[in-house]
Structure formats: structure tokens, C-alpha cells
Design a protein that fits this description.
It is built from two helices and 18 strands. With 277 residues, the chain is an alpha+beta fold.
Length: 277
């Protein structure tokens, strides 16, 4: 009888100990799952795929993150991506957990850094692009693999970017140097004969073989005259053959660049020769 009671008592103790261990394990798992996720945004300083570490420089401080085995990587030109697709100079937001001051990244997402303005110089020989907007010129490095995106996501080349083109440049800053990764020139082009100008209303009309269009002239519209981008609306003459670069907004054609058709063709040829295309 004593032996049976002793065995029963030992079984009860074992069950209690097992239940306690399971409860503690469950509590630990819940605590881990409940750990609040934080985020940090900055520029990548360095990335080590072998050690699974990532250093980010924010506005004031730099932080080093351990890249979790299930970490997700989302880049502007690739999603999903891998740690090998990260590079210094990219701006990213890291979602992470703080485990007793050990920062563990769960997600790394690239943030776009963009500059919008007018392309004033595109020099593929020196691999530089200068974009102007009010009060500021920005010079960017122009790598050979920089993408050019045109209207309706159509791929383009450097020859499609002309002096005076309105562009949005997405760039990164490796070693602190602005480097273009994508140039978007998404306006529409229309080539036709100038038929009417209204200086007061700031409108122009043009006629092609089977189509005519009316344009509202934007305040910052670039007008190319004799190769220079400082022309005025009054410099244009009826019957001039022109290329109108415009955006169609709710049925209104807003022109942001007007250039002689011949000059634009020469510009494209020159740029193509410089790029070897």
C-alpha cells in the first residue's frame, strides 16, 4: 500500500513539474511574441551578409542591427529581395525588436529619395546629370545602369532626356555622392506646326497631320530657342514645327517644354553618340 501511495505521489509531483515547465515556456513564448516592434529610418552605412549585420545612420545616431533569419527585404526595384541586394547609400526603414539592447531586424524596406526639376545638363561622357529647381541645382552621378522611365512606364534611354525636360530622379548616396538610379520623364510628346499663340491666356495651338491640340503653358515651361532654354512665349512664331512636352490633367494639356523639332532631333542624336547607342 505504501509503495502504491509513494508511486502515486511521485506521479503527481512529476505532473506538477511538467505543467510548471510548460507554463513557463508558454509564458516565455508569449512574452517574445508580445515584444513591441520598433522602427528606425536612415541611410545604410554598411551591410555584412556573412555576419548578418546592418549599420544604419539616422539623423543623429548610427545603429547596428542583427538581421533575423526570417527578415523580409523590400527594395524599390526588387521585391522580395535578399540581404545581398542591400547596398550602402540606400535609405531604408528597419522594423526591429529590442531584445535587451540586441536589435533584431524583422523587415528592411527601402524608402525613395527623389529630386524633381528640370534637367539642365546631361553629360554621359562625364557621367553627370544636373537638375534645377527654384533656388537649387543638384548634380548627380549617372551610372550606365541607371533606368530611364517614360510615359506609361515605357523604358527609355538617356537620349530621351533633353535639356529642359521635367524629370523626377530617384537616387542613392553611396559615399555621400548623389547617384541616380532612375530618371522618370513621364510627360507626353506631341510634334506639330504652331497655329496660334495667345500671350494673355498663355495658350498655344498646334496642328499635326491628323490631329490638333491646344495647350495651357505652365509658369515654369521651358522654351528652347537657338539651343538655349531661356526663351519666351513671344519668341515663338506661327508655322514653327515644334515638339510640345505636356501632361494631360483631367482633360487639360499642360505643356512644360516647347522646343524646335529639328533641335530636339539633333539633341537626341548627340546624346546617342555620347552614350554609344
Amino acid at each position: 500500500m505504501k509503495t502504491t501511495r509513494s508511486k502515486n505521489w511521485m506521479s503527481v509531483c512529476a505532473m506538477v513539474l511538467t505543467s510548471t515547465a510548460m507554463f513557463r515556456a508558454s509564458a516565455d513564448q508569449m512574452a517574445t511574441a508580445a515584444r513591441p516592434e520598433k522602427s528606425y529610418t536612415g541611410m545604410i552605412v554598411s551591410v555584412d551578409p556573412k555576419e548578418n549585420t546592418l549599420e544604419i545612420k539616422g539623423f543623429m545616431l548610427s545603429r547596428q542591427f542583427n538581421l533575423g533569419s526570417a527578415c523580409n527585404y523590400i527594395l524599390l526595384d526588387k521585391s522580395p529581395a535578399t540581404v545581398n541586394d542591400l547596398r550602402p547609400g540606400q535609405k531604408v526603414t528597419v522594423s526591429y525588436q529590442d531584445a535587451q539592447s540586441v536589435l533584431i531586424a524583422d523587415r528592411v524596406e527601402q524608402e525613395p529619395v527623389q529630386f524633381e526639376g528640370v534637367a539642365t545638363v546631361i553629360d554621359t561622357g562625364k557621367h553627370t546629370l544636373i537638375v534645377h529647381r527654384t533656388g537649387l541645382d543638384k548634380e548627380l552621378q549617372l551610372p550606365d545602369d541607371c533606368k530611364v522611365v517614360l510615359h506609361n512606364e515605357k523604358p527609355g534611354t538617356f537620349a530621351d532626356i533633353h535639356s529642359g525636360s521635367h524629370v523626377t530622379v530617384t537616387y542613392e548616396t553611396p559615399d555621400g555622392t548623389p547617384t541616380a538610379r532612375e530618371i522618370a520623364q513621364t510627360s507626353i510628346e506631341f510634334t506639330g506646326m504652331l497655329t496660334a499663340i495667345d500671350l494673355g491666356e498663355k495658350t498655344v495651338k498646334a496642328q499635326a497631320m491628323f490631329e490638333s491640340k491646344k495647350f495651357k503653358v505652365a509658369d515654369n515651361c521651358t522654351i528652347v530657342i537657338n539651343g538655349k532654354t531661356d526663351g519666351q512665349l513671344s519668341d515663338l512664331k506661327p508655322d514653327d514645327k515644334l515638339v510640345f512636352t505636356f501632361d494631360e490633367i483631367n482633360g487639360i494639356n499642360v505643356v512644360n517644354r516647347i522646343a524646335p523639332a529639328e533641335a530636339q532631333a539633333n539633341s537626341a542624336t548627340t546624346t546617342a553618340q555620347m552614350t554609344g547607342n
